[in-house]
Amino acid sequence: MGKLTVRALRAVLVVVLTGTVLVQAVMVWALVSGSDPEDGSLPLTPLRVITILGIGTAQVALVCVWRLVTMVRRGTVFSHAAFRYVDGIIGAIVAAALVWFAVTAVNAPGQREDPGVTLIMGGIGVAILGVALIVLVLRMLLAQAVARDVEAALMQAELDEVI
């Protein structure tokens, strides 16, 4: 990965992480201060809490991606240490799906006349879980690459002994 690519990705990660922290702070302030009274049309307090948790899942994924980019830049991504961050991303995606299902459940009573919206929202939650499965497959590919890298290092060591 080139230096320009790493810098661009890190710039995007910083902007997104800063934005999520600001939105989270505003949501916590609105939740704590009660400055935005509920009019009864939506259950705002549960939605605020769910939003804060959902943003937290995104932040975990962003930090894990940052760490993986650092490992790529150093050339150490094909190691067992990378699994911790990939597992963190998978966990964050699964948590985001659960948060989305919670949003769906909170929104469902208001959709009694049109249950299709709830079904679509449930489908989106399943799609989010599908992304977690894709990252799991990529984790398995990383595991194969690490195993081959270890095997190649052992073969090189044996070859060095013979020579």
Account of the protein in words:
The protein is mainly alpha-helical and 163 residues long. Helices cover 84% and strands 0% of the residues. The protein contains four helices and no strands. Helix 1 runs antiparallel to helix 2 (44-74) and helix 2 (44-74) packs antiparallel against helix 3 (81-107). The longest helix has 48 residues, at 115-162. The chain starts with a helix and ends with a helix. The mean pLDDT is 89.
Give a short summary of the structure:
The chain has 163 residues and is mostly helical. Helices cover 84% and strands 0% of the residues.
Radius of gyration, in Å, reads 21 Å
Order of SSEs? HHHH
Largest β-sheet summary: none
Shape: elongated
Strand content: under 5%
- Report low-confidence residues grouped into runs of 5 or more: none
Helices and strands: which structural class?
mainly alpha
Number of helices: 4
Please provide the count of β strands. Answer: 0
Q: Average pLDDT value? A: 89
Question: In which range does the helix fraction lie?
Answer: over 70%
Distance between the termini: 34 Å
SSE layout and pairing:
Layout: H1 3-33, H2 44-74, H3 81-107, H4 115-162
Structure characteristics:
single chain, mainly alpha, 163 residues, elongated
